[in-house]
Amino acid sequence: NDYFFESVQWRLEPEGAIVIVMTRLDENDLTGAILAADPEFEIIRLPMEYDPSRAFPTRLGFEDPRTEENELLFPERFPEEVVERDKRILGPYAYAGQFQQRPAPRGGGIIKRDYWQLWDENEAKSQGIRDGNAYPMMDFIVMSIDGAFTSKQENDASYITVWGLWDRGGAEAKSMLTQGGAKIELLDRRDTIPSLMLMWARELRVPLHGDEIVRRYDENKSEFEIRMRENWGLCECIEFAARKYNVDRVIIEAKANGITVADELKRLYKTASWTVELYNPGAVDKVARAYAVQPVFTNGQVWAPDKTWSEAVIAEAEVFPKGKH
To answer: Residue 312, Cβ neighbours under 10 Å: how many?
Structure first.
């Protein structure tokens, strides 16, 4: 990566182009590093099995001609039996990178992708909700923040997630956690079961506060509001989302950056309907905390809508604790 950024890139002629052809091997391989650093690069992904969630047309004019999920790239040369054979030999991590162009680091998988439940049209209607874009009536809504307030792309971002707790009807629980963290197997035939919904998420690389924006004489109210949002800092984004999703409580980890964010939120939004709580996990590390909530996921109690931002959260959770950030 250093060789490319410090040497190769600067040998380009004024009218030239850089073309990189490679197999994905790691989140931070050359392709991963370039995509993180330079949005001008276009990527053409050719996964062996078609993945419609990651198929996007490019400015270069290429669009994957396949339409069916898992449709093979080149069945004349790599038919299904060959692909399945290679999948068994490579294993899930190598296959994800080398065949699907979706590198996943070894050692992740505490919160697997399959553990998440899809909130879609069918599930919404089964719960009496008009469509998959609407959520059930929540009993409690919490916003969780891991604040970095930095605009540098190479640093960890600030992450905001909003979660709603509701009683989902027509469900069966397979296990539960005691207050001490022990898992108890059971068959629960209650009419409802407590469930969590990922309602909104955002990854931000912004300062604590945005710039002060003055309305121009030639712009209307809508244009001015859009320009203001583009210049928001972390505090302004938090306040907007807390208001929009009727958040009851904002939880922030009690570390250096988190304490600063909490103090600013309390100072700026004293009369808000939501409260701010600093949480100190003590000596329990992130991996132990992830394992502690794993049964809630495996029990089918965590839901997410089919949205780009929720896919980003699921992908980040999938590679924890070995992901780049």
So the answer is: 14
